[in-house]
Amino acid sequence: MIKRLTVLILLFSGWLVTYGQTGRSSGLTIYGGKDMVGYDMVPPSAGVPPFDAGKTYFDSRFSLGFGYRWRLKPIDSRWFFDFAITAGYHRYKYGLSYLSPDEHITYAGNAGVCNLLSVSLSGSAGYYLYKGLNLSVGVESAYYFYDKNFVNVPVFVRLGYDFGCMEIAIQYKRGMTRKFDLFPFANNRLSGWELMVYIPLSKRNTN
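RESULT FIELD:
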């Protein structure tokens, strides 16, 4: 028991020293962008006519979101670490065109939109390349709901510039799961580009 308590005290003391030597900031994030949907079509064995691939589509209209970010930066280091919680709205459009098995002519099928809401947690490690220019890599766990319910786990790369009063960055996400199901589009992968603005509301020892 005494040994465990001693270890806990030492770990807590080390955390206090590290925390005291770490700059901190936190604030709002706002983003906008467009997703890219990678998909497969269900085979004819599923009971649907063959598709006209050139006129069948499943694409994103836009995505918008906001959240809150915490940044930790060791003093006198170029490295920093971000943690964020984000909520988003995503809108997609799709349309189907079929080929007649006899006459090989195209006729229109269903078309519509799909709306998704999302909440996500993300973490990343970043490095200041030159002055405010920085590069981050990280992973996100996102839960989508509303028209469809599923989990996506994208990895992302973010290139940004820290102006002090705000940071502007462009980010690319690559979805690692294919849980977005919308028949007859199968194995759907969500990736995409985002423009992100980070506005710190509090700062402490961030040099």
